[in-house]
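chain below, 168 aa
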Amino acid sequence: MNSDSDLQIAGDILEVTHLLQTPREHPATVAEFVGLARSLAEDRSQWEHLVRYDATSRWYHRLRTGPSYEVWLLSWVPGQGSGRHDHGRSSGVLTVLDGTLTERTERGTRALRAGAQRVFAPGYVHEVVNDALEPAVSLHVYYPGLTEMPMHTAPHCEARALPGAVTA
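prediction:
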């Protein structure tokens, strides 16, 4: 089942920060992957010097790997987007490090500003775009490591906001 909720099983752990755990060397739970993403986001010295901007395509760099997971750093100049896709059998945590990204799903559109995080399960279909006038940087943790990113065409994600849509 494709769902736009952050976590159907346990609720939105991003809203209950006391449940977030300090990341272990090798995370194993959703909360630990969220914690890993947050700790990397807070320590700019681990990623800021690596960021490059490419006007012709999204730039990306694998920042870290571990047992069955990967961490990717991406940059987005204005107008760049991912296209509508899912992540195959991988779950993920998307964290915006700098700038603002727009996430579009069949259920609506949400602005993701620096510090915002999205947690998604396998099969979650979305499109991420930099609709802003400034570049953006994001961090992506995938478990297991990303081996496929199937693209989806019809129906495309409309750039519409749902009444009461969540924005971060």
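Residues 30-42 form the longest helix (13 residues). The longest strand covers residues 59-66.
thats it, cya
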